[in-house]
Amino acid sequence: MNTLIEAPWLADLATELPANVRLQRLIGGLRAHFCCGAVALLRLEEDHLCPVVVDGLVSEALGRRFAVRQHPRLAAILARGEVTCFDRDSQLPDPYDGLLDTLVGEPLPVHDCMGVALRIDGRPWGVLTLDALQTGTFDERARADLADCAVHVEAAVRITRLEQQVQVLGRAGSAHAGEPHDDPALRSALDDSEILGQSEALLRLQHEVKVVAGSDLPVLLLGETGVGKELFARLLHRHSPRRGKPLVHVNCAALPESLAESELFGHRRGAFSGAVTDRPGRFEAAEGGTLFLDEVGELPLPVQAKLLRTLQNGEIQRLGADEPRRVNVRVVAATNRSLRDHVRDGSFRADLYHRLSVYPVPIPPLRERGDDVLLLAGRFLEQNRARLGLRSLRLSGAAQAALRHYHWPGNIRELEHVISRAALKALSRGASRNDIVTLEPALLDLDALQAPAPPPLAGPAPETPPAPAALEPTTLRDALDACQRQSIQAALARHDGNWARAARALDIDASNLHKLARRLGLKN
């Protein structure tokens, strides 16, 4: 084992690097230093521990949120102020069961495990965990080394937070002048985990939203149903100078037309039947902060006219009142429809559209976010594991490929429903809560699993003898197995029997391909 002084990853602490690069190098260096199977850095968010970077775990582990009360090993590490080791025969369940990339889907055998709690600015920040499949790896020397390493990990987190704070201050400029240093937006530099993903499209969008957050311009969030428009409205508010004031959410589609005006602008007593007291509206509730108008295209035309006046003059008038009131509110609107089309057909005011869309922000659909679908699936897998009381819940390699190639018309919301439904199906078909439950493509029930019909032939097809009835697939699982078997055989034929190259061509982990081939009877 190399000494810490010689560890090359320590040099990264004095080097300007992107946050994810610095932390990933650090974790990779620790895994090599301790000669272990997996290392994970997890951040504490209220009562959950969320992976920030991992090495040796499957990629979807990054999307999981581990409830501390449900994972006694993590709870024990977090509660102690020193290195915590677990006996090799410890009966406490391991949170990474089925998630090691060298033992995908298999329970962790007897192994060494240790971890240490991390503190930043005197407060609990998270934990660092290490797992080694070779028992005896973590001796007294290793435990002492980990205590030293924790100091360097805390330093890396501090450096990363300071760099991000400087970026936040640079974007906001003078808007932050004179504010206290204990700014919640600055403290959350590493804590924007509500929006999960690492794709270039998502990271670019998050940066854009944080930049525009520093202004008071109206923002129009555009995107399909289920892409997470409300999460981006929260992100925008959290990074704005108004973050200390309310963020008020109004679902315009749920407002009855007769009450929409009263809900937004308030009313005086006696303004209509049932108005027994004065009541402020949502604009007044959001005073000094942000008003998020979700599905703004559903507002009735008379209310649109009053909303336009508020955007132009900063004034509202309660229903039944004689005098207007001044309000200081930033409006963020969202829609999954084409407001341009509504303007053309007369159901949405053109002048209001131009007022709301001063800064339009298109949110990419899930199908354009690459492997983000696996990170999001990881979060939903952990939620369902906890909800259903399972030991472990994960995706097979084939199921991961199915998720990546599906079109996702319902986006993230549809993904959440797909994972929840598949977990319930697995239990209903006999899976044990005490085993590692692996979801296969058939359980996901995705339209993408249906094989396309063959193209029509240019001429009459040559006569071929009918296949024996016994060979025809009788269930969806049989048909799926036959399709997978043919795909694997074709990939092996193209790559001269080389399993590694075939796995890359099929976009599946090599170990998963071998396991799938054994299940399908293609190898012993």
Could you characterize the architecture of this molecule?
The protein is of the alpha/beta class. It is 40% helix and 15% strand. It contains 18 helices and 15 strands. The protein has helices at 19-34, 72-79, 140-172, 184-187, 200-213, 229-238, 257-265, 282-285, 301-313, 339-345, 350-356, 372-388, 397-405, 411-428, 441-444, 476-494, 499-506, 510-519, and strands spanning 38-45, 48-55, 66-67, 84-86, 112-120, 123-132, 219-222, 247-251, 290-294, 315-316, 325-326, 330-335, 359-362, 392-395, 436-439. The strands form 4 sheets. Strands 3-2-1-6-5-4 form a 6-stranded antiparallel β-sheet, with helices on both faces. Residues 174-191 and 448-472 have low confidence and may be disordered.
Give descriptors for this structure.
single chain; 524 residues; alpha/beta; 6-stranded antiparallel β-sheet; 5-stranded parallel β-sheet; 18 helices; 15% strand; globular
* Alpha-beta content class: alpha/beta
Tell me how many strands there are. 15
Mean pLDDT: 83
Spans of at least 5 consecutive residues with low confidence: 174-191, 448-472
Largest sheet data: 6 strands, antiparallel
Strand percentage: 5-15%
Helix content: 40-55%
User: Termini, distance in Å?
Assistant: 38 Å
- Molecular shape: globular
Total DSSP helices:
18
